[in-house]
Structure formats: C-alpha cells, structure tokens
TrEMBL record:
SMART domains: WD40. This is tRNA (guanine-N(7)-)-methyltransferase non-catalytic subunit WDR4. HAMAP family: TRM82. Residues 401-411 have a biased composition (Basic and acidic residues). Required for the formation of N(7)-methylguanine at position 46 (m7G46) in tRNA. In the complex, it is required to stabilize and induce conformational changes of the catalytic subunit. It comes from the Eukaryota.
Amino acid sequence: MAAASVARCGDWLMISAGKTLLSLDTGSSRNAFVFDCSAAERRPRDEAADGDDHRDAEVSRDEGTDCILALAVSPTGKLVALTDDNKRLVLFRTEPKWQCVSTRWVVRRCTSLAFSMDEECVLVADKSGDVYSFSTKQPHAAGQVKLGHLSMLLALTVTPDNKFSITADRDEKIRVSCLRGPHNIQSFCLGHTEFVSALLVPSKSPDCLLSGSGDGTVKLWHYETGRRLQSWDLQELSETPTEERLAVRRISCSPDGHVAVQCDRCPWLQLFEIKEGSEVKPSTCLRLPHVVWDMVFDQKCQLWILLENQQTPVLLYKHAQQGWEQCDLQQSDLKRVSAALHTHWDCFKECVGSPSRLHQLYKVNFDNMAAYRQKKEERMQQKRAAGNGAPSNKTRKRVKLGSEHTHESVL
C-alpha cells in the first residue's frame, strides 16, 4: 500500500509519494530533485548482507514494490535517508546540491528511521523488532544490530542530547535505551492500550516525550523516569466523536512550541501549545476540506499540510493572534509547491484512496469459549429433543429393572 508523506530540510520541502521522492525548494526557483526508487540500484540475487545468516539472506532477497516506507532528515539538514519496500536504504547529501551517496540493503522491511544528533549514523527500525545502525561516515558499510523488541517496531527517535534512543512497538511499549550502550535500558513509558505509532521529543521541551497511539490518545512523558505527565483523548478534543477508532499517524512540532497531531485518514488536525514548565495545552482542532496525508512545520513555524486532492494538494497555515489562519494560495512559496505537485501528480495516483496501514495493526481478540459454549448448547438441545421423543437410556434401565423385580415377586 502506497503512502504519501512530507518532511522539511532547510528550504527544501520533501514529499514521498509511492516510489518517488520529490524535493522542492520553497525559498527560490531551484529545480526540483526527483528520485525514483523503481529505477534505483538493485541488489544482486546471489549477494547477502555481511553478517547475515542463511535465513536472513533468503528474507533479504524477497522482491518488493519499491514504495518508500520511511524518510528521515539529519539535524543540520545536510543528510537525508529513505528506505523502501525493496529493502533499500538510500543516503543522500543535500549540500551543495542533492547527491545520492550510497545504496545499502537491510535484512527486513523497515518502519522508521532516525539520525543520531552528531549525524554519525542513521538508525533503522524494522518489522521484526530490531534496530540497526548504519554509518554515515562509511556510507557503504553494513549495518550493525543495536537493540531489539519482541514485537514490530513502529516509531523511533533520538533525544536532543544524543544520549537516548526511544523506540515504540505494536505491543503498546515505549522503551528508552542508552544510545551508546543500547543494552542499558533507562526506562519504559507504559500506559497506552494499543500500538504506539508516533514519537516526538519537542525542541522546546527536550526532557519530555510526546507519543501517539492506536488507542486514540496522545500522552506526555518524562522519558528518563518513564513518568506520565499528561494524556488527551482525541475523540473528546475533536468535538465530533465517531465510532471509528482513531490512530495517530504523525506528531510534529514547530520551533516556537506549537504541536500538530494527525490521525490516519482524517480530515482534521489537533493543535496543542507547549507552555512554560513543559505544560502542554490543547489549542484548536483544525478542520480541513480533504483527508490529510501528512503535515510538517517549517523554520518559520508555518504548517504545511499535504492533502489527498489534486486540485488543492497542499495548504499552508500560520499562527496569528486570532489563532491559525490559512495563507493565501497565491503566496509565492505555496504557489511554487502547488504547481510542482500538479506537474508530478502521476506519482500520487497509487496513493489516492489507499487503505489505512495503521488500522491493520489492531489486534483481533478471539473468544475461545464462545464456540465451545455454542457447541455445548447445541448438544444439550439435541439431548432434550431426543428425550421428548423416546425414553432415555436411564429411563429404559429403570423399566428393565422394574420388570425383573416384578417377575421375581410372582415366582
């Protein structure tokens, strides 16, 4: 299933749609950079990753669809990494111009990427629950396993002090591990009741962690101790509760402390604001004309929103005294991005109407006793029905014994 996402890298607005990465310069008229994964380097079928055993090598050679699964930008914006459904890990350099540095292969399909703060490595989380570290200084070196969960990993981030890596999985767990020694677990942040799909350490509050889940809640943690500070139910904040379960897809934060939360396949965003003392307060629910694919803040604290609509593929909002206001569609940077998206809209066709990937992560609960009770009730009904039409075994036995006693008394 193809998905569209957006990220910022300085003046570049990066949009991944299906198999294509499209980078657009919002600050000038520089040409767009386009990378097509379907035309990228392919792994030789007889080649296995260094250190892979035979089983992992067989998994690695499994052919994929080339759709981009995850995208990450380094802290300085000089490096960008993506991973796709064909198990590539592609590293780019953005300065002085876009350049593909290397293409490496991972063992299993990945779900999330994150750069270390010193930009010496990119961390890769995969569906088997493992996190690998790939060097950026040695762009062709194989990855090394750093840590593992017993469940599929869904989100990964690194703290601003480069001290901890934070991972979240399908089994509702958030683990805080020492980045340099991942076998040392600092804490667990436990409290979600469904898979944890989004993590963010706000730049304005670097000691805290925001998490989003398939249980429809956003929680604030002091991650070093694992203590939960605040929690919000997005169904209640949206003011229009629905019967469908809400799954948080993305949490983004602006430099001045505004937070936007996006739920999968929903036409609205929930906005928060970080106050003094790391307190977070809900501000407004931003209603939008179409389903939101993804969103991101830029360096000017403006909110870019990618929509599932060809006529209006992107909107831009800024915060003012009256609240969040939509920018004029004729604004130069917004107009430039919209024109480029119209030109490359063919890349988005397989994303339009694509079913939710997150809703497949909900676990189905089986009542093992229900079938047993039903079959037992059917057997009881059959016995009762048989008892109404003919004497049971016990009745026939009593009749036989009675006949014997009668015969003896006559004798």
